Amino acid sequence: EYSLSPDSAVTGVFSLGPVDGLLRVAGRLDRETRANYTLEIRAKDRGEPPRATKTNIFIRVLDENDNSPVFDPKQYSASVAENASIGASVLQVSATDVDEGLNGRVRYAIVAGDDNRDFSISEDTGVVRVAKNLNFERKSRYVLTVRAEDCAGNSEESVRHDTANISISIIDINDNPPTFLDSPYVAYIMENVVPSPSGYV
């Protein structure tokens, strides 16, 4: 006759057939809550007197891709000077996925708000960098949408993801000198003209 040693941590999770000794899953498993179980199995005969033995079974719960990456926070903001060098770091975003292995590995991409590709993001680290020369007079503010997805599979259906927004303000640099309109100017004046009280020629 087979039996499981009483353990409140596994009660209702596994069951053991008393006759066939078949171990079955009886409740819900969640690797993120508990990844390993050690069960003590007892076997007892019906002799007189009955004799018994016991052994331990180690069970590891395999991961299922049942959690999405999560950005925290969902909104980021930063500022960068328009003369920032290409490759300059702007900020770093971060998302976490409690799954393990490829199911929990997060990769990043900019998916909206930067049609000119003025910024880039590291797929592995989430660091956003300047990718092209910026110009405050051309564009003074960007709102980028960044996507974090896991690496669970190649199909869109199997990949889980989350998005966040980044607001980037471009700081103006005094890089444009004043210019005269319609330059050069030419004026003619008679040598015997009395100066005007207004000072205009």
TrEMBL record:
Which InterPro entries does its entry note? Cadherin-domain_protein (IPR050971), Cadherin-like_dom (IPR002126), Cadherin-like_sf (IPR015919), Cadherin_CS (IPR020894)
Q: Which CDD domains match?
A: Cadherin_repeat
UniProt xrefs under PROSITE patterns: CADHERIN_1, CADHERIN_2
Q: What is this protein called?
A: Cadherin domain-containing protein
Of the GO CC terms on this record, one is: cell-cell junction
Q: Where is the Cadherin domain?
A: 2-71, 72-180
Its GO biological process annotations read: establishment of planar polarity; establishment or maintenance of cell polarity; homophilic cell adhesion via plasma membrane adhesion molecules; intracellular protein localization
Location in the cell reads:
Cell membrane
The answer to whether the entry has keyword Transmembrane helix is yes
Keywords linked to the UniProt accession: Calcium, Cell adhesion, Membrane, Repeat, Signal, Transmembrane, Transmembrane helix
| Principal place of residence | membrane
Highest taxon of source? Eukaryota
GO molecular function ontology, one term from the record = calcium ion binding
What membrane topology does the UniProt entry give? Single-pass type I membrane protein
